[in-house]
Design brief:
single chain; 219 residues; mainly alpha; Glutaredoxin; Glutathione S-transferase Yfyf (Class Pi), Chain A, domain 2; 2 domains; 52% helix; globular; binds glutathione
Length: 219
């Protein structure tokens, strides 16, 4: 299999952290320069018409272009610790959590488009939209907090694919944009801190100019 990715992106990081958790090293890494626009080149658009990374190329020639679908696909194929749950009901719960994580950080992403100096040249920015998206991000994370239970992780006593997606997304948002978890999300904050101790949590280096420009302005 091949993984089209770049090391510091929020969505590719979900897969890179996951592969470390699984102990899998034999997937070929294809690195794209998204700042230069590799993801919009015709050859890449044939693989993923959305023009985004990550993309997984399977051994039988299929392309999977959404980070959550890649996690679910790899869970079906790869050896290593089970990260989706033992029963059908457990797996459905993990998928529920994964989709909530995905929704929350999509809202956070739109918030950054409207409040980070990084996007000033590329988007018409609106503080009103930024506030609305932060509200939705907090609302969805509130639902995830309520589902979290008292275990060490969303997945109980060990991390699931929902934990990986949550950790990679939250680490990106707080490191780069200085967006913090809503105050009412104490369980999620504890899960984040616990995950941070894992070897897979070591953050990828961001380009320096992005670090300088990214932090959200007041909105
Ligand atoms: N919903 C997609 C989103 C992927 C995505 O937006 N990836 C970003 C990088 S982290 C990207 O490729 N951006 C390039 C662009 O939009 O031109 C997923 O979950 O994989």
């Amino acid at each position: 299999m091949k993984l089209y990715q770049f090391s510091w992106g929020i969505y590719p990081r979900r897969i890179l952290v996951y592969l470390q958790e699984k102990g899998v090293t034999d997937i070929e890494m294809m690195t794209l320069d998204v700042v230069a626009g590799d993801q919009r080149q015709p050859d890449f658009l044939k693989k993923n018409p959305a023009g985004t990374v990550p993309v997984l190329e399977t051994d039988d020639g299929h392309f999977i272009g959404q980070s959550c679908s890649i996690l679910l696909y790899l869970e079906e194929c790869l050896p290593g610790p089970d990260m989706s749950g033992a029963t059908a009901a457990d797996r459905a719960r993990t998928r529920d959590q994964l989709l909530l994580v995905n929704d929350a950080y999509n809202f956070a992403g739109i918030c950054t488009f409207h409040a980070s100096p990084l996007f000033v040249q590329r988007r018409e920015q609106s503080s009103e939209v930024a506030r609305a998206m932060r509200f939705e991000y907090a609302r969805v994370l509130g639902s995830l907090e309520a589902m979290a239970g008292d275990g060490d992780y969303l997945g109980g006593d060990r991390p699931s694919i929902a934990d990986v997606a949550f950790f990679a997304s939250e680490q990106f948002m707080r490191t780069l944009y200085k967006l913090r978890l809503p105050e009412q999300c104490a369980r999620l904050e504890a899960i984040y801190s616990r995950f941070q101790q894992r070897p897979s949590a070591t953050p990828a280096a961001f380009p320096e100019w992005i670090v300088d420009m990214a932090p959200l302005r007041d909105f």
